Amino acid sequence: MKTVFFDIDTQIDFLFPAGALYAPGAEKILVTIAKLNHYAAKHRIPVISSMDAHSENDPEFRDWPHHCVVDTLGQQKPASTLLEKRLIVPNSPCALNLTLIDQILLEKQTFSALSNLNLALLLDHFAAERYVVYGVVTEVCVKFAAFGLLETGKRVEIVTDAICALDEENGGKTLAEFTALGGHLTQAGMIYA
């Protein structure tokens, strides 16, 4: 089954206690995220890694603390999650040369990875039958990605041991709603099997 992995917002500002918008405990899933990304590269599964890429005066900062400002340490992805052959895709129309690319760093300025203007082209290019979603945070950006991907009519799975919520109760509600809409829950060990 043709698959695409979606690594959602695994950036320093979200993953580590010193980050501007830290999700408590998120650093604990970093090893699993890195393993999933490297497993994908080894098996020629494309990885689309969404990344907040905010300006200093981004409108989102009316509701959330400053985070993931372009060219800051907090906006970067941990080195362990990066694949060797990667391409940054901005949220503006651009030519895409995906030859020999393992990881797409998909920039966005809203909660949803699907807001990037180039994502529709990427989804058409990869023509996946299955999407595997993981990252941070469960009830916000992971939710927007997974629920949006469900609308494609393809199989969508959330890797439950590779996500982290800001609030566990809201995270649980998100997963329940996701499965009620036809989504599937899995664990990293099931992916590797």
Quick summary:
Helices cover 29% and strands 22% of the residues.
Provide the fold topology:
Elements: E1 3-8, H1 12-15, H2 30-42, E2 47-52, E3 86-89, E4 103-108, H3 119-126, E5 130-136, H4 138-150, E6 155-164, H5 168-180, E7 184-186, H6 188-192
Parallel strand pairs: 1-2, 1-5, 2-4, 3-4, 5-6, 6-7
Helix pairs in contact: 4-5
What key attributes describe this structure?
single chain, alpha/beta, 22% strand, 193 residues, 7-stranded parallel β-sheet, Rossmann fold
Please explain how this structure is put together:
- This protein is an alpha/beta fold and 193 residues long.
- It has a single domain (3-192), classed as Rossmann fold, CATH 3.40.50.
- The chain is 29% helix and 22% strand.
- The chain has six helices and seven strands.
- It has helices at 12-15, 30-42, 119-126, 138-150, 168-180, 188-192, and strands spanning 3-8, 47-52, 86-89, 103-108, 130-136, 155-164, 184-186.
- The protein has a seven-stranded parallel β-sheet with strand order 3-4-2-1-5-6-7, with helices on both faces.
- Helix 5 links the parallel strand 6 (155-164) and strand 7.
- Helix 4 packs parallel to helix 5 (168-180).
- The radius of gyration is 15 Å and the shape is globular.
- The protein starts with a strand and ends with a helix.
- The mean pLDDT is 95.
